[in-house]
Input
Amino acid sequence: MWRRTMAGSEKARRIAAGVLLATPVLALLWPPLYARDGPNLLGLPYFYWYQFAWAVLSVAVMAVSHRLLRRHPHDRFDDER
Output
């Protein structure tokens, strides 16, 4: 059976994207990081602004991961083909 092997740089990009995508999940699944009262930010308890910050950071992480995993890095949109 024919099997496609990944180039070293493609494999490294996949690993980097996986680590990036796992970071927000692990940060939100580990309660000792955010299960406390302070500090407050603009009157919001730490729990709420920590969760909101990760929601925004997750969007950035997904964008970077998408760029790492694109097959043709010079193409602007892969879906137009």
User: Anything to note?
Assistant: The mean pLDDT is 82. Residues 10-69 form one domain. DSSP finds two helices and no strands in the chain. The helical segments are 8-29, 46-69.
